[in-house]
Amino acid sequence: MIKTQEYIKKNEQRFLDELFELLRIPSVSADSKFEKDVARAADFIKSKLEAAGADKVEVCKTKGHPIVYGEKIIDPKLPTVIVYGHYDVQPADPLNLWDNPPFEPIIKNGKIFARGACDDKGQVYMHIKAFESMMQNNSLPCNVRFMIEGEEEVGSSNLGTWVKENKNRLNGDVILISDTSIIANDIPSIEVGLRGLSYVQVEVSGPNRDLHSGVYGGAVGNPIQALCEMIASMKDKDDHISIPGFYDDVLELSKSEREELNKTPFDLDEFKKDLGVDDVRGEKGFTTLERTGIRPTLELNGIWGGYTGEGSKTVLPAKAYAKISMRLVPNQSSEKITKIFQDHFEKIAPSSVKVKVMPHHGGEPVVTPTDSVAFKAASKAMEETFGKKPIPTRGGGSIPIVALFEKELGLKSVLMGFGLDSDLIHSPNENYGVFNFMKGIETIPLFFRNFTEMSKK
Ligand code: BES
Ligand code: MN
Ligand code: MN
């Protein structure tokens, strides 16, 4: 293992150069304009997995963007780790807010700036280089399969189908994922929960055409007004969601579980300062850590309609729209919540407008075990490289496919991520610390060794 670690340190510059090559490919899965680039990113992952020593590497076609599969089976009797990650990225807009172009990576103050630097190309690439390092130093202790997809940022629906159809080549013991964050570089942590997601777009229609807001205004229902009222009515004064049945299935935590969660290092003043807000806001009776970790939410992601261009146009618009996401917590079901939302939205619509609810993607919440061999192996690996035992945390984000891995493959995941909440994922100036990238590459081989050794007992 010492040799492997030396190899990693010696090759830092080359690892970074290769990651930069990947970051230069604008593999935006949401926008069909980038379809060829997404395919190019898949080919890049394939060639690097092959070069690192993986067998049966294949770019698997789907109805959407491809999945890259590869494996190294050294002995079927040994444990098998399935590494999951995604090579697709979020759109880079708004482009004008980037200090450097999003697909021209650059290192500043020890951080790699580029779309996907942290989410998830940087973290995926740690696995490929950790694998290369183990192969080169004969220290790969067990079997590994790689499953790197190109549609995580758009809901992973084709990966779900692919997993169901490829169960035979996905036998393994654990799913290892680096696509989450740690508390700080000197406070390592492992996320043990991810929220689920229901995502809908709503359309509110009023008159059959845009109207003169003077000639008709005051006498016809304005869809933007109706939409705003409907949205406003969905939370009460305590920021409690007032859709009937919304909280029915929520698994409440016990007092001691909540106390435990609130021991997680967190500085509210720092949090506010970082975001540039004077105050936080959320469901009454819960702390910020609880609001993002264990409580469901309803958020507006976008709202539009009418005239928003330069100057003023006097118009009473025909339509108004909003994109709304609901984050879900254990025991809530995405399908059920989407249905509850849809029924409620249709019910509260005033008679002067018509409404439509279009569900986008969804995903189920998960909690991962802390008493498993895999979790203990990850915890020990991080303790070895960070010098501190990682703290289990509940993350607010979603990785929809994790629940499906559990359902279809019967496999639990370990969320051994190395990002920071300050990495600006999905935002302009996304970045990833060189420290974090290298820490990940150093930690992964230790996970493999610990997991193999601890599985024997
Ligand atoms: N890697 C993130 C999720 C994440 C980020 C989890 C930070 C924990 C900490 C993932 O790529 C992501 O952005 N997921 C989406 C869901 C998807 C269906 C668009 C999300 O959470 O919004
Ligand atoms: Mn991600
Ligand atoms: Mn993401």
Q: Topology, pairings included?
A:
Elements: H1 2-10, H2 12-23, H3 35-52, E1 55-60, E2 67-72, E3 80-86, E4 106-108, E5 111-113, H4 121-136, E6 143-149, H5 157-165, E7 174-177, E8 181-182, E9 189-194, E10 196-205, E11 211-212, H6 223-232, H7 255-261, H8 268-275, H9 288-293, E12 297-305, E13 315-316, E14 319-328, H10 334-348, E15 354-363, E16 366-367, H11 373-386, E17 391-394, H12 401-409, E18 413-415, E19 419-420, E20 431-433, H13 434-456
One manganese (II) ion binds next to loops.
Characterise the protein shown here.
The chain has 457 residues and is α/β, with parallel strands linked by helices. The protein folds into two domains: 2-194 and 365-456, 3-Layer(aba) Sandwich (Aminopeptidase); 196-250 and 296-363, Alpha-Beta Plaits (2-Layer Sandwich). It is built from 13 helices and 20 strands. The strands form six sheets. The chain has a six-stranded mixed β-sheet with strand order 1-2-6-3-7-18, with helices on both faces. A four-stranded antiparallel β-sheet has the order 12-14-10-15, with helices on one face. A three-stranded antiparallel β-sheet has the order 4-5-20. The two termini are 21 Å apart. The mean pLDDT is 97. The structure holds ligand BES and manganese (II) ion (2 copies). Residues 86, 119-120, 152, 179 line the site of one manganese (II) ion.
